[in-house]
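For the sake of transparency, this paper describes our internal protein records without simplification. Because each token names a local backbone shape, the row as a whole describes the fold. One such record is reproduced below, unchanged from the form in which we store it.
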Amino acid sequence: MSNLQIRAFEMADWEDLATLFQAPKCQRGTLQLPYQSRDDLKRKFENPPPNFHRLVAVHPEEKRVVGIVSVHCMQGRRSHTGDIGMFVHDDYHNQGIGSALLEALLQFADNWLGLQRIELTVYVDNPGAVHLYKKHGFQVEGILRCFARRDGEYVDAYTMARLAPSLLAS
């Protein structure tokens, strides 16, 4: 999508993101629960955990947030590591928004946060997301059996990681 704007999350974005969090594909493809109230979601956006960074994708014509990616930077002996989460509005899949968000986040993580390892989990039955992550250098490191409950059944997830280019060069 041309002219897509990637920028930091602002509290004014919370209503667009609440809509995104409540979308069926978002709930199916992430750990989001259905029936979250908008009030609960607003509180979640207002009170992020420490060392948590969020980037959003803003649709160029509609001027609304259509995707988000976040990284939670670990501390102590894992301070070189970040854990990411991402999703794109149901109506905007396969339009390059996920790639744009992920590219921006990886540039931020590599060049500003100094992270050497980025981790994520993704359901094994989400081939589009797995393909996106592999395209950006992530590798499957293992399978988490019965990782989460969805629609009354347990689903497996891959644990994936990407090492910083500086680590791979050495």
In short: The chain has a mean pLDDT of 92. The beta strands are 5-8, 52-58, 65-73, 81-88, 117-123, 139-150, 153-163. DSSP finds six helices and seven strands in the chain.
